[in-house]
Amino acid sequence: PRLDSLQLDANAFKDRVPSRWRRLNKLTTLDLSWNELTGSILPAVFTGWTSMQSLRLNDNDLTGPLPTSIQNMQNLRVLNLSENEFAGTLPLSLYFLGKLELLDLSKNAFEGSIPTSLFRSNFPALGEVRLDDNDLTGVINFCNLEQIIEFQEEVAGSARGVFTSDCLAPGDGTAAAAEITQCLCCTQCCRQDSATGESTCGVNPNADG
Fold first, then answer.
1. Is the whole model's pTM more than 0.85, yes or no?
2. For the chain, N or C: smaller number of CB within 10 Å?
3. What is the edge-to-edge ordering of all strands in the sheet holding 36-39?
4. What is the enclosing helix (H) or strand (E) of 45?
5. Which letter, b or e, does each residue of 27-55 get, where b requires 16 or more Cβ atoms within 10 Å of its Cβ?
6. Per residue in 7-32, pLDDT tens?
């Protein structure tokens, strides 16, 4: 029998995700969250997981950039990489994951501006995006996703989307700007306290803008 689901969350697995795991090319669900995995993900791993629909690697110590080979995982519906130490810019290869329903990249070290074309029209089912607690900068536009969600509400009564980023200005009394200077159609804006490392999130003050 083929192995199509593997749930190994909340154990004490260490080291990196083995490159030989790319041979598990029939997997549709993999949960390795809440472990002690470290190191970067080798591009070959994502290349082999073409059947994957749900991938949860959150709450580990994974590092390095997100491999562009993630574009091979075009059946993904859930991608949760939150609470790791991933860095670098968000790859445009995310654009090819058109079946995504949830994308959580929060609490990492992603940096730079968000590609303007990333959230335009290729995600008809994407209702939750969490990008807060990173070092992303500039402008982000979730409005197309919000319009899709509103249409779904009218047709099927589905829940409103959740779109978060670091668009809340520091609360230390300074005139410093938020990391994301403008977040169009964000539902929540967040900021991280530099002293405690704790996050504060609230309703986007410019939600209607």
1. yes
2. N
3. 14-15, 36-39, 61-64, 85-88, 109-113, 135-141, 180-184
4. helix 43-48
5. bbbbbbbbbebeebbbeebbbbbebbbbb
6. 999 999 999 998 899 999 999 999 99
